[in-house]
Write a structure and sequence with these properties.
single chain; 998 residues; 29 helices; 23 strands; 56% helix; 14% strand
């Protein structure tokens, strides 16, 4: 009992150490669990939302649309739980200029169901539900009416069918027709598209560089009123996928098994079957056309034959009359009246030659008969020519049918192909990677500080330990006094850390995340396993340090322990050997120097602890500086143009005329801009960048006219980049990169995210949904957005093949040489403000779809999510620095109580004692800061490897001011600690402190 009471008394006496260990553990556990918990809560809430709304696991697209046979084949695939046929149509409408939208049918099989936020779901034809982004941009509300116009090529499948038909009709076969939606619409609800969780009212509204949609808006309509049996796509749910987290590798493996099966025999068979359907449809049309033509020709021939028969009868009557009259005249001149009477009673018989001669004579003598015969002959000739022409046309179509219908292509995609899903996953993964990296520093600092504090605590009780051991107490029992002390401190600190880690930090992060994404059903959850392991990690580290301190002391005999520890033997330090310097240092300065360098363990612990905290602060500020400069570097350095104007293809000429007439442009470059995708399939052979790399990135595909390839360098800074060590990159000389016809130039932001490098093979998807495999000729320095530059010739080579003619807006072989240059990059005169105002005025023009001012983008670029994380990291690093300095200062004082008492006996005033002790701590702090500043820059330089985000590349930069802030903050913490230490020094009693311990 006395042993326990003494232990409790010892614990109460060491309350400062207890608080220090508890605070370090609290901060470490909070950092370890907080960022993880915030990201995990976001992951889980979105996963539940996706499951509730039935977000598709797999989507199948086809260049020829999907028929009922395709849907039936997909349903038979092993592992497919449900298949939903999708019908959609692209439309345009007027909203401060021409805007586009996708009319999407609300599926009846529970897949990709929009989430109702306001109003009700549409049920009748003409009713639609819109997204909040449309409500915000249009100013409309529930009950408002809207009229839309279907695009000339309203969907991929409609044009596919138009171009592949044998005779150019609008049907692919006898039954399949492209989808068509009502055009007079009424808004009845506001919904959230599960494929895009971006918050239009939050921070994401300012981050246009993250936009992934190919149309401006999506309208959801019921099946009522939708016509057409051809499907634009098919969405699938995979068996067992809903039980897995959509962000885990297990989910990806489950879905991959099904996509592999579809990519196998099903895809190949249905591609062939679908093409055969198109061929059969074409053949049927040719057969039907021939039958219809033969019927028309037969009717025309019958009419001509009837008219000719009537004409011949008329002529024959005249011939008969003339022949009879001639015979009667000859008989009248004869002698036999009876013979004359007989001749007059019968028509003379004429041979065929005579009769034909008489016909020709009669026709030639009559203008009317001549004209009638000519008309009959002309009609017969025209009919014969039409027969020959039609037969030749049909034969030509028969011969050209197989070549005019390209091979059908299927594209099997998973959720990674959804730009909104990829952006959310990448954002959370990047923040979580920071949460995995920083706790390591906190753990190392916690172990170092615990070792320092517990070693001093054990050393203070040295004689008491020897007494207990001498009285027969086991060494384990004695050590338990300190082990239980450290364990209790860790448990209390860890418990408070769990509260902060699973409630405080996640709540803060989720507030920021909800400013970027809409996450219905978001709630904070506790992870027992992770939380317990987080505390256990720090408990093991601190207890290991405590055990080490106990073993170091208790391996001596009780007699040795009960005697005071022998003072450390004096020794020269390196500075003493530098006589010119040493001789000029005062007495107290020399004592300070010896105290600093003789006690090497204290030197290492203090400098290491301060350096770690300073490095964390620098690292956090490095992220802030990097994000703050992204907009400036991208829109003022990399983009040399001032204005980008984009129009619809049909308005391209009017847009260029409008811009030219304004007189603001000093130089310009016409380009074609399309929204597409860049995909890398993991192959492990090195051809696709990193071995085994995979993923998809939304890109802006920029096609440059062949005659103006050299002008691209005047609008965009072309600098090749190469991968460096630990995720860093090397930047080549400006202007050394040229666009040619051998490959595409990929932006660094996309290449870094997907592991693409020069020489890699990637799959590009253009604005029409056509996919092609392209070679990456170079990677260009780019920080925001994902631009892919391609020459006009290489674009035609990639997308104007036979496989590419099967899409909307695709060009036939006759006119495929010319692209529509729907965008302009321009340099403007005037100030930044005037350029911004000019871009805003252009957007009001009906011919302009989008006008972007680089000056405005540079000034308005924000990335609030990373800024919030930076603030959190800097605050926690500052708290750790304060705790570390407080622990080291108190340990330093407790080790030197007798020394301080001696100084007081010798006549030192309290202020002089303060200066004597604090000077050592300030010097050690300065040394830690000097070491921590470059260490923080080194760690910050590796952030690119951790922060792998779509459309962003973090070109790490630390401003001089950040170094100053980190150094000043650390020194300020040191000065603050002095305010707590000085009263302790004042309370030292020289008499009691100098009493002999024996």
């Amino acid at each position: 009992m006395a042993f326990v009471k003494d232990m409790l008394r010892m614990w109460a006496h060491s309350w400062k150490r207890f608080i220090s260990i508890a605070m370090i553990t609290l901060l470490g556990v909070a950092v370890l669990t907080g960022i993880y918990a915030g990201c995990r809560d976001a992951f889980r809430s979105t996963d539940r939302f996706f499951d509730a709304q039935g977000l598709h696991d797999v989507q199948v697209l086809s260049t020829a649309g999907l028929s009922n046979g395709d849907i039936a084949a997909l349903r038979k695939v092993n592992g497919v739980a449900k298949v939903q046929a999708e019908r959609s149509q692209e439309v345009t409408f007027d909203l401060d200029g021409r805007k586009s939208a996708t009319m999407q049918e609300i599926g009846t099989d529970g897949i990709d169901q929009p989430y109702l936020q306001e109003g009700r779901m549409p049920k009748k034809a003409g009713e639609i539900a819109v997204t909040r982004k449309f409500i915000r941009d249009s100013g409309k509300r529930i009950g408002s009416r809207l009229t839309v116009t279907p695009e000339s090529a309203s969907s991929d499948t409609s044009d596919t069918n138009d171009t592949n038909g044998a005779d150019g009709t609008n049907e692919t076969n006898g039954t399949d027709e492209a989808p068509s939606f009502p055009t007079k619409l009424t808004i009845v609800g506001v919904v959230l598209d599960p494929q895009n969780l971006s918050n239009p009212d939050g921070y994401s509204a300012m981050t246009s560089f993250r936009s992934t949609a190919t149309t401006d808006y999506t309208f959801f309509a019921p099946s009522d009123g939708v016509t057409g049996t051809l499907c634009t796509s098919a969405t699938l749910l995979v068996k067992g996928a809903a039980a897995e987290s959509t962000f885990d590798e297990s989910y990806e493996n489950t879905v991959k098994q099904v996509t592999d099966r579809i990519d196998g025999t099903v895809k190949t068979d249905r591609q062939k079957a679908r093409r055969q359907e198109l061929l059969d449809a074409g053949n049927r049309k040719i057969v039907d056309a021939r039958a219809e033509a033969d019927k028309k020709f037969a009717d025309a021939q019958s009419q001509i034959d009837a008219n000719r028969q009537q004409f011949n009868q008329q002529v024959d009557q005249i011939v008969s009359m003339q022949a009879g009259a001639a015979a009667a005249g000859a008989a009248a001149n004869g002698a036999n009246a009876g013979a004359a009477a007989a001749a007059g009673a019968t028509t003379p018989q004429l041979d065929e030659t005579t009769r034909e001669t008489m016909r020709e004579t009669i026709i030639a003598a009559s203008p009317e008969l001549t004209q009638a015969k000519q008309q009959l002959d002309q009609a017969q000739s025209q009919l014969n020519e039409q027969k020959a022409s039609t037969e030749q046309t049909l034969k030509t179509k028969e011969n050209e049918l197989k070549t005019s219908i390209p091979q059908v292509r299927w594209y099997v995609q998973d959720r990674q192909s959804l730009g909104g899903f990829s952006a959310l996953k990448s954002d959370l993964d990047s923040i979580q990677s920071l949460g995995n990296a920083f706790p390591i520093v906190f753990l190392l600092v916690a172990v170092m500080m615990s070792l320092t504090a517990m070693a001093r605590m054990v050393e203070e009780d040295r004689s008491l330990i020897g007494t207990y051991v001498g009285l027969g107490y086991g060494r384990l029992a004695v050590a338990s006094r300190y082990l239980l002390f450290a364990l209790l401190a860790c448990l209390i600190g860890g418990g408070l850390g769990l509260i902060a880690g699973f409630l405080g930090i996640p709540a803060f992060l989720l507030v920021v995340l909800q400013g970027m994404y809409v996450m219905p059903g978001l709630r904070l959850e506790y992870d027992w396993l992770y939380g317990s392991l987080g505390i256990a990690l720090f408990v093991v580290g601190v207890l290991a340090a405590t055990i080490y301190a106990c073993v170091q002391e208790m391996r001596q005999t009780p007699a040795a322990l009960m005697r005071p520890k022998a003072p450390r033997a004096g020794s020269r330090i390196l500075l003493e050997r530098i006589r010119p310097v040493w001789n000029r240092i005062g007495f107290l300065g020399k004592v300070t120097a010896r105290n600093i360098f003789r006690f090497k363990s204290r030197l290492i612990m203090t400098v290491g602890g301060v350096a770690g905290c300073t490095a964390l602060i620098v690292c956090g500020l490095a992220i802030n500086d990097t994000v703050a400069d992204l907009g400036i570097k991208q829109y003022r350095d990399i983009y040399q143009y001032d204005l980008m104007v984009v129009s619809d293809d049909s308005d391209a000429s009017a847009m260029r005329t409008k811009v030219a007439s304004d007189g603001r442009v000093t130089s310009s470059l016409d380009v074609r801009i399309e929204s597409g995708d860049l995909t890398v399939a993991g192959s492990g052979d090195g051809d696709s960048g990193k071995a085994g790399s995979s993923g998809s990135e939304s890109i802006q595909l920029v096609a440059v006219p062949e005659k103006h390839l050299s002008d691209l360098g005047e609008m965009v800074t072309l600098q090749p980049v190469s991968s460096g060590i630990l995720g860093t990159s090397g930047v080549g000389k400006t202007g050394s990169l040229k666009l040619d016809d051998d490959g595409v130039i990929v932006a660094q932001s996309a290449a870094s995210a997907l592991g693409v490098k020069a020489g890699s093979k990637v799959r590009l998807t253009n604005g029409d949904g056509v996919q092609a495999t392209a070679k990456v000729s170079a990677v260009n320095r780019n920080l925001i957005g994902s631009d892919v530059y391609v020459s006009e010739t290489y674009y035609a080579k990639l997308f104007d093949s036979k496989d590419a003619k099967n899409t909307k807006n695709s060009k036939s072989s006759e006119d495929s040489e010319a692209l529509t240059w729907n965008a302009m990059l321009a340099k403007l005169s005037g100030s930044d403000t005037s350029q911004t105002d000019y871009a805003e005025s252009l957007e009001e023009d009906s011919s302009v779809m989008k006008a972007v001012s680089c000056a405005h983008m540079a000034d308005s670029f924000k990335f609030d999510l990373m800024g919030a994380v930076v603030a959190l990291i800097v605050a926690l690093a500052g708290g750790l620095a304060l705790v570390v300095l407080f622990t080291l200062a108190n340990t330093n004082v407790s080790e030197r109580v007798r020394e301080m008492a001696t100084l007081k006996v010798l006549g030192f005033f309290d202020r002089e004692v303060h200066h004597y002790v604090n000077r050592e701590m300030m010097i050690l702090t300065v040394m830690g800061v000097i070491l921590g500043l470059p260490l923080g820059r080194l760690v910050g330089g590796m952030l690119t490897m951790a922060l792998n985000m779509p459309s962003l590349y973090f070109e790490v930069e630390v401003k001089p001011l950040s170094y100053v802030i980190a150094a000043v903050a650390t020194m300020a913490f040191a000065l603050l600690v002095q305010l707590f230490v000085n009263p302790v020094l004042d309370r030292i009693d020289p008499i009691s402190s100098l009493k002999s311990v024996e």
